[in-house]
Amino acid sequence: MNTSQLAISVAFLGCLSFLLGVIAENKKPAAGLPIGKDITICKFPSDPTVALGSVSFVALIFSAAIGLLSVFYPYGGVSVPKPALFKSIVLHIFFWIASICTVLGGGMMLWATITEGLHHVRNVHHTPNYACPTAKTGLFGGAAFISLDASLLWLVCLMLTHNARADYLDEADPKGDYGEVLATMKA
């Protein structure tokens, strides 16, 4: 497995999580239809919101797991110790921000999905004139954007890990040294 395969996997799953979260937000009904006088039974239209939110959450978890793996994966069979990797302050900061975004995006997506599912399952209420709400508007969409941010941050971590590995292993940059200018002139 190489860096490009890991990067494509992280990006694909992050984009999938984002798209499914946005579609879940758009497909979510505004409210259910209240039926009854003394006891309100909420009838919700058939919608794929709970399934889309669940798959979006799973895609985010897999994207983050692959992103986490990409930081510690021994490329070419050569592993780099954790202290050497996190000697790079920038990698350290991006690693924690990516982790926090993953937890926030996943938590929000899970919260919206569970709330929506509970509204559909617990649809009998002993309150007259109950409004039959659904999950709060914007939760699925907000979670989708945070999930996309998390996957992009994992991609940045992958690139910074590549740089930290090259520094630790003293690998030569195939593009040349910094500041080295090569110029050729044709007459």
Short recap of the structure:
This protein has 187 residues and is mainly alpha-helical.
Give structural notes.
This protein is mainly alpha-helical and 187 residues long. It has one domain. It is 63% helix and 5% strand. The chain is built from 5 helices and 3 strands. It has helices at 3-27, 49-72, 82-85, 89-121, 139-169, and strands at 33-35, 40-43, 124-125. A 3-stranded antiparallel beta sheet has the order 1-2-3, with no helix packed on it. Strand 1 and strand 2 form a beta hairpin. The mean pLDDT is 89.
Could you outline the blueprint of secondary structure elements for this entry?
Layout: H1 3-27, E1 33-35, E2 40-43, H2 49-72, H3 82-85, H4 89-121, E3 124-125, H5 139-169
Antiparallel strand pairs: 1-2, 2-3
Q: What is the overall silhouette?
A: elongated
Largest sheet, strands/sense/barrel: 3 strands, antiparallel
Low-confidence blocks of residues: none
Radius of gyration: 23 Å
How confident overall, as mean pLDDT? 89
Count of separate DSSP helical elements: 5
Task: Give the helix proportion (percent range).
Answer: 55-70%
What structural class do the secondary elements suggest? mainly alpha
Query: What's the end-to-end separation, in Å?
Result: 45 Å
Count of discrete domains: 1
Number of strands: 3
Order of helices and strands: HEEHHHEH
* Beta content: under 5%
Strand order of the largest sheet: 1-2-3
